Amino acid sequence: MSLSQRIETDFVAAYKAKDDVRVAVLRMLKTAAKNKQVELRRPLADDELLDVLAKQVKQRQESIDQFSQAGRNDLADKERAELEVLRDYLPQALTAEETAKAVDQAVASLGATSLKDMGKVMQAVLGANKGRVDGKLVSELVKARLSS
After folding, report:
1. pTM of the entire structure?
2. Which region holds residue 18: left if phi is over 0, alpha if psi is between -120 and 50, else beta?
3. How far apart are CA 135 and CA 125, in angstroms?
4. How many CB atoms sit inside 10 A of residue 36's CB?
5. What distance in Å separates the CA atoms of residue 110 and residue 90, rounded to the nearest whole number?
6. What is the mean pLDDT of residues 96-103?
7. pLDDT tens track for 72-85
8. Is residue 47 exposed (0-12), middle (13-18) or buried (19+ Cβ within 10 Å)?
9. CA distance 81 to 29
10. pLDDT (tens digit, 9 = 90+) per residue, 47-75?
């Protein structure tokens, strides 16, 4: 079953079960995917849908940070609940050790030696592990690896 089929099936099931949070999150995800599909003027492949999903996850994480800093824990909790629903559709994330290993492999394979090569390394790691790594962690690891 493709990711889009799984989302559609889960949306219908959540709607029938009256799971308001899941229905709202999946509706927003389907809308974002449809907007991307209209922009590209063709159906989305699963990896493109993963990009849309990752963008939605990132938006929720940023909102949680902003709401927490502003002392709006009620809104931060709502965003956390939505984030948990979205994470069900992401592939299994790499651990910090696996991410560090992927960064080391990318640095070695590209022959990166300075911070000027950071963009190439980031692109290689994020592209090879689409939806499975945290961009912020990868950025920190690449910067630390290329600075030393």
Report:
1. 0.76
2. left
3. 9
4. 15
5. 28
6. 89
7. 999 999 999 999 99
8. exposed
9. 14
10. 889 889 989 998 999 999 999 999 999 99
